[in-house]
Write a structure and sequence with these properties.
By secondary structure, the protein is mainly α. Helices cover 73% and strands 1% of the residues. It starts with 9 loop residues before the first helix and ends in a 19-residue tail after the last helix.
Amino acid sequence: MTDSGPGNTMRERVGESRLWLWLLLRMNRWLLTALVLSAVFVTLVALSQIGLTPLREIVESQDGLDFLFSAFIGAIITGTSIVVTINQLVLSQELGAIGDQRERMQESIGFREDVERELVEGASPPEPAAFLYELLGGIQDRATELEATMEDERDEKLQEEITEYVDDLTSNVASVQAELEEAQFGTFDVIWNALNFNYSWKIYRARQIRAQHSDSLSEEANDAIDGMIEVLTLFGPAREHFKTLYFQWELIDLSRALLYISVPALVAVAAMIMYVDDAVLPGRTLGVDNLVWLTSAGLVVGIAPFVVFIAFVLRIATVAKRTLAMGPFILRKTEREDDMG
């Protein structure tokens, strides 16, 4: 692995196109749902124009649309049951005896005190974006102290590496802090910006620099690097904690959305089964059989709960995959000639 390291932002690290990453993570989930459903609707209508057996003939031979829509009833009801299960799993983490709740509170306060001790401030902000902002500010302060300490070192290569390290860290901190100023928890913005601070690589580089120059480092410089590593290690648990809270928030929103949309979907599917046959809406609109328009719309409404589920889970799964390892571990393809051989 080269010392230059991976990029700081999520897009630079994963090596995927900006558009694809935007679709996976940044795009509004309802907009993504509408886009997928629109694509399905257009595809179904377009298929009726390529010379396949006319839908009206199929419906007539099957004596209605039961063959097409009956399966949706069971699928939607089953999906709703799964939603209830998801809610139970999410909420179960919030339930517990008073001793468990007290332990959670003590651990939370203890972590805050550790951060405040490192940042040398009275009370850290309670809001996630502001908390991360202040923590990044503390990391920046430690980097400045580290660079100042290195001015007295005689090892010019060490000074050069520290300057490069601090410049990269400073640039990363400034860009993330700028975005965090407007971020609100409950949206994906807080987690997205937290992902754009590549703390794990910065921990690795600090440890690597210390190991490579252990013979020439003064005690003061060694303490400064230790302090740099210490404050960086606080960012990982903070990011993971807020990520967990966001996942719970998002799963609850998903559960509510599916419960809201399941009833209209059931009504639409039941109406297609009960009232639509080959005699409904004779004629054509824009060159397309009216039965095709109606059936395509019914199918889109029927699969809407499933598409909503996909849209929400896709982002959760993508973030989870990109943050499996906490600390200086990199779970992706890298250049590693310098580390193996």
